[in-house]
Amino acid sequence: MKLTDNNITELYKFTRKHFVEHYDVQTELVDHLANDIEAIWEENPNLSFEKARDKSFKKFGVFGFMNVVEEKHKQVGKRYRKVLWTLFKEWFKLPKLATTLALIFLFYTILRLPSIGTYFYYTILGVYIVYFFVKCRLLIVKHKRKVKETGKNWLLEDIIFKLASSNFLILFSNAFNIFQFGDLFQEMQYAFLVAVFLVMLLLVGYITLVLIPNKADELLEEQYPEYRLV
User: Is 147 exposed, middle or buried (0-12, 13-18, 19+ CB in 10 A)?
Assistant: First the structure.
């Protein structure tokens, strides 16, 4: 016996009912369930679709699909971090290295200026705060609109548009630890380290909030060949 299109549709609904949110993970599980159900029918052709489905589902154990979902999150998260690291490293190779060094030198020079350094630091972070929250909001709205239009929520896309900001937020949170040392901006070594930190903050924010989202379709097509059909 073979599963019908209606059976496949029911399996997608079944995975969503069991807290599998992302379409690519659903598809992988539906494919596994479908093959297993057909194997079960070969042994017991009189079994109903629902009973064969439930029998197959029991093989996932007491946690159901959660272990599969967790493993997929790890795999796709690793893929995202690899992309992030690859794009980040480009800023330390020619020709982008020149821009990175120029920014570090510029920030270092300004930080070393009497009374201006601390003000500059606060200003940069203030701009970051506003831009960060505005950009994150725009990305989330864009993602929700696309999911609504296509009816499909891909795991990598979800990470790019909803969870990617956490990378920037982790680095950004350390910025507040520097506030108390504003008087040390006059010291050469400390000013240099702060300048490097600000440039890293700028690069991670740009890559996470601008560059990767702009490359989302390209990255999704690489990860999911079927994405081209959406």
Answer: middle
Report the SS3 class of residue 32: helix
Q: Distance (Å, rounded) from C-alpha 157 to C-alpha 152?
A: 10
Q: How far is CA 205 from the centre of its chain?
A: 13
What is the C-alpha to C-alpha distance for residues 72 and 21, in angstroms, rounded to an integer?
Answer: 12
pLDDT in tens, 126-151: 887 788 888 888 888 889 999 999 89
The DSSP output letter for 90 is: G
3-state secondary structure 53-119: HHHHHHCCCCCCCHHHHHHHHHHHHHHHHHHHHHHHHHHHCCCHHHHHHHHHHHHHHHHCCCCHHHH
d(CA 216, CA 220): 6
C-alpha 190/C-alpha 173 separation (Å) is 19
pTM higher than 0.90: no
What number of H helices and E strands is found in the chain?
Answer: 11, 0
